[in-house]
UniProtKB/TrEMBL annotation:
Lineage of the organism: Bacteria, Pseudomonadati, Pseudomonadota, Alphaproteobacteria, Hyphomicrobiales
UniProt keyword DNA-binding present: no
Broad class of enzyme this protein falls into: hydrolase
Protein name: Probable periplasmic serine endoprotease DegP-like
Catalytic residue positions: H127, D157, S232
Amino acid sequence: MTSNSFLRAARRTATAGAAAFLIAAFTVPSLVSPTVAADGPESVADLAQGLLGAVVNISTSQRVKGTEGPGAVPMPQLPEGSPFQDFFDDFFKNRPGEQGNPSQKVQSLGSGFVVDAEQGIVVTNNHVIADADDIEVNFSDGVTLKATLVGTDTKTDVAVLKVDPKGHKLTAVKFGDSSKMRVGDWVMAIGNPFGLGGTVTVGIVSARNRDINSGPYDDFIQTDAAINRGNSGGPLFNSDGEVIGINTAIISPSGGSIGIGFSIPSQLALGVVDQLRQFGETRRGWLGVRIQPVTDDIAESLGMATAKGALVAGVIKGGPVDNGTILAGDVIIKFDGRDVNEMRDLPRVVAESTVGKAVDVVIVRKGVEQTVKVTLGRLEDGEKLASGENGNADQDNGDEAPAVSAASVLGMTVGELNDETRTKFGIAAEVSGVVITEVAKDSAAAERGIQAGEVITEIAQESVATPKDVMDRIGALKEQGRKNALLMLASKTGELRFVTIRMD
């Protein structure tokens, strides 16, 4: 069946009932021609038939320890020779957790699809096979093959399996380009919902670029094609029979489909699959910065016309840009030729880049746009470094001799950061700046969640070291007609964040 035939058939299927309702209720012109209404919708069987053989059911089993503890019921003590002895032995001693039967086998089902028939490569979701002791791949012709795990990626929920065909001819499908899919395009899902293998459903792309807070690289395709439990890991096809998504999640109060399903776009999944096949693990690019969104207030404070990009809240010590190339307070608006319109765009485009690649990064620093060259590190190598790092870049602390010991500004009382205040608030030795000792209730600072014990390290991207510095910087901003003050704050352990406080 041609692409246009698939599209026409799906369109007729989806609109025929709705058209009948509109005609009856509103007396509008007919939406379906009399010939189509009489003959019924055109079948999509040819397209489905060519794809069913490549879609597999994945069954896993896991040995889990028997239940013990307060909830376990102990075997009653019976007199020797009791006629109930055999009954209680069967009930209690053969339960999971009892001697001789220490564990039970838990099974689950999911979906997947073959992408390489010769090598026996199968793609599915990580959560389908997570913690499994045994994995089996069940094909549409009834053949079942044991599978070994090639690699997994928890960040995108992708897993790659391998089976040995042993003379069994496999059918494979190929990835398409998800970036070409538009809202309203027709799609087909095939999978194993509720254990019912080879189930075909049709719908449209309902939305793109969905962030459902499931991982750092969320960029889901939303579809109304019916996806239920057991569809996880199965393919979402375009009208040409190419995989443009991996069905992963649904929103459903009941556990069944309500027409809101999510698929990992092939544009994201393909690179992960290739790396897992080649290395058994992912090798993502790493910039070595901590970021936060650019709000309207922050944009105004930085002199930016529009709120866009990712604000660098800190630089990881020992990371790729811990050489002054990128500084805390910079706003990244373009990475390697790709626009960074919002914060969540940056981690994804960096991760998709090659480790060791030299890229151009466009930043806004103190209101001036400039381009810097950065050589990327490897995310997996930097994660331990980042987790143990306080994210505080080296700063110019300015004049160390305080002109005043404390000051009150913008609803905050600020003081000198010395041994006494470090001890009082438990502030780490490497943190520098001006300590906030008190925050007035209902003040602008309190509304922004600022708390006593935090340390002001910068105001409007200028370092501060004394209470007088804070007062001078706020005064200078007011003289410039600024409505907001941009503050870089450090937590007690040195974690950095930016906040804006209105000064009117």
